[in-house]
Design a protein that fits this description.
single chain; 180 residues; alpha/beta; Urease, subunit C, domain 1; five-stranded mixed beta sheet; three-stranded parallel beta sheet
């Protein structure tokens, strides 16, 4: 059983029913599952395969990013002047020019940024050119993702958009809650 102990956190923010903030807290993780949370003194006797000294850190639960165009958001950051107006035309041209290998690489860069900033899962609204390359990057990074289905396109009327949204919602409901 692989164990990790995050020890002596300056502050440990919980999401338990009491919403505790523990000063000098520790977290024990066994086989990728949090098994104990408490004061460092309470868990001092518990050993671990790896101990992370968190004395100067605030430990929080993982964050969820609710909207991330992962495969190109990272690579276009900061490349357009502020006065360009909507850069979407340029962003889509850049994405359209990407190869499968480039989309995999830019997806990994975006995932690295998400994880580095505490996100453990995210929603991609379905904006990838090479979905299989992105899915491989998600597996490579070990991050959880919900992938939406692109439903917008040029010339789409509000009525057609509503019909596509309703059909997508129905398909998701069937896949999440199959009839018994």
């Amino acid at each position: 059983m692989a164990t990790i102990k995050i020890d002596n956190a300056r502050y440990l923010l919980t999401v338990d029913d009491r919403r505790r903030i523990i000063q000098g807290g520790s977290v024990l993780i066994e086989n990728s599952r949090i098994t104990r949370v408490g004061k460092a003194a309470e868990l001092a006797h518990v050993g671990a395969d790896r101990v992370i000294d968190a004395r100067q850190m605030v430990v929080t639960p993982g964050f969820s990013n609710g909207h991330m165009h992962i495969s190109y958001a990272h690579c276009v950051r900061g490349i357009f002047p502020d006065d360009v107006g909507s850069p979407l035309k340029h962003v889509f041209a850049l994405q359209n020019a990407m190869t499968e290998e480039e989309e995999h690489a830019t997806t990994l860069l975006g995932l690295l940024e998400l994880v580095r900033n505490g996100s453990v899962n995210f929603l991609d609204p379905g904006s990838t050119k090479f979905p299989d390359a992105c899915l491989q990057a998600y597996r490579d990074a070990g991050i959880r993702v919900v992938i939406g289905e692109p439903i917008a396109c040029e010339g789409l009327t509000p009525e057609l958009l509503n019909a596509k949204v309703e059909a997508w919602i129905e398909s998701q409901a069937k896949s999440l809650c199959p009839a018994s």
